[in-house]
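General statements about sequence and structure are easier to judge against a single worked case. Part of our work consisted of pairing the sequence of a single chain with a tokenised description of its backbone. The amino acid sequence and the backbone structure tokens for this protein are reproduced below.

***
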Amino acid sequence: QVQLVESGGGLVQAGGSLRLSCATSRRTSGRYDMGWFRQAPGKEREFVAAITWSGGSTYYLDSVKGRFTISRDNAKNTVYLQMNSLKPEDTAVYYCAADLDPLPGRYHLRAAYDYWGQGTQVTVSS
């Protein structure tokens, strides 16, 4: 069982920054990948970013490349999403997720992830 708790969301003006954190209940140094997804009102949950268990590979949604950075600190059992140059279209509930049995090329699929957090709201005003 893995419990995930997100934090760091809030209200920010366009162009601002936020850093989301996802604390896990077990060692993130275990060989599982972590991902961030988001869901805006009336839309499906979409992939945002993912990081492999070693931190050696990261993946991003095209629209956030160059603005968002995913990272992990296995000693602190925490995964981060640094979000810069935020836009109103980034407004959504952000979820972190854990993939305990990662397979190549599946990092962007919701079905690949075994555990999810409750989400944290990010609102970007124009």
In short: Residues 47 and 109 are 7 Å apart (CA to CA). The chain has a mean pLDDT of 93. The chain is about 0% helix and 45% strand.
